[in-house]
Design brief:
homodimer, about 240 residues, alpha+beta, NADH Oxidase, 4-stranded antiparallel beta sheet, 5 strands, about 40% helix, about 15% strand
Chain lengths: ~240, ~240
Amino acid sequence: MTEDFTESEKNGFYKAIYSRRDVRSHFVSKAIEDEKLSKILNAAHHAPSVGFSQPWNFILIKNSETKKKIKESFEKEKDRSSQLVEEPKKSKYLSFKLEGILESPVNLCVTYDPSKFGPFVIGRSSIPEAGLYSVCCAIQNLWLAARTEGIGLGWVSILSNDTLKDVLELPEHVVPVAYLCLGYVDEFAEKPDLETAGWLPRLELKDVVYFEKWNEQKNSDWDNISKLIKENLDYA
Amino acid sequence: MTEDFTESEKNGFYKAIYSRRDVRSHFVSKAIEDEKLSKILNAAHHAPSVGFSQPWNFILIKNSETKKKIKESFEKEKDRSSQLVEEPKKSKYLSFKLEGILESPVNLCVTYDPSKFGPFVIGRSSIPEAGLYSVCCAIQNLWLAARTEGIGLGWVSILSNDTLKDVLELPEHVVPVAYLCLGYVDEFAEKPDLETAGWLPRLELKDVVYFEKWNEQKNSDWDNISKLIKENLDYA
């Protein structure tokens, strides 16, 4: 388990990191093979979790009635949220395609169950949110594994969690964390859709890294890496 | 961007997924090369984020006074949380090594700044927690990239976020999401430490996958994948 990664293995890993996209527009109807889907789920299940609590569940959905109800919730929430933004951004926002609920062959709700292996979970007493954070790590494993298998994934967060809980019959204590759309795609875009559309720019790495404390962008103990980061190398 | 992954690229990706560990005991003092550290940070920065808000910051720490303060907070919180668990589990819990704050050459605090590109962020009006979830995706990218580069990482969630905010001078609105220890290791364990110690077992994949709604473990539309998952193939 300690041997180094070969160059080709590293390349495979970074290819997944840099070519992963949030997919909304490019789904095709081709079904996902069961073996691929189980590989992707298994990668998610091998995420880290606080106190090894593995507090996630994965609800696979293809029932079209369920999808329609979720899509309705999306429409309602998109309309509601558009009231929060002024023109000309509002029209731009409304023109974006932001989900692929009906077109994608598989929808997947990922949930957090705080009662699993509880109530005492190592590492969750001081920071209770740590359980939720574990579920997000599983989602990112899932997303990257999907990309590796050639499957696109889009995370829909414009919807009502109350509707989700109701439609999927989640118990009161279970939290829906993500509603995901999965399927083959006709392409993975070069860049995030919102970057291409000029909605927001990608920040430079130097803008998100601080040294020793908040907002410290210069520190003599970190001169060399600070220079490397400023060169903003494209490692992709 | 749409070409398939080769077998060797896939293997590299899955090797990262299955050999990643939460490291506490195996740090060695060898410094992390600046180029490796910036590659790891760049992988984190290329995580998905709600509305492309990139709401993360990464605070690199090697100052020993800072580390000592965080270690003190850990000791205090570990002691406090041990009161929540009964013997014989309590003694077992207290015997675990749960952090490598002082031994690891680099500590890293990952934070969430909800004000970035705000207040209107696409996809965050209905589910405000989506911003925090993005930061967790970045942490998982970082964790996997570290593994690929042969660097161990341990997430310390037994500490006080108030202390963290104070020591790192975080503004009131910024949320500390993770405190991470990074460094070379003498080994990556075969299994998670808490599994090896018999604290908790790894769940089987079939125990975390439902079909169409909560708790539904059998559904005729999902028979084939249900069988595959029950075989609990070890894809690692």
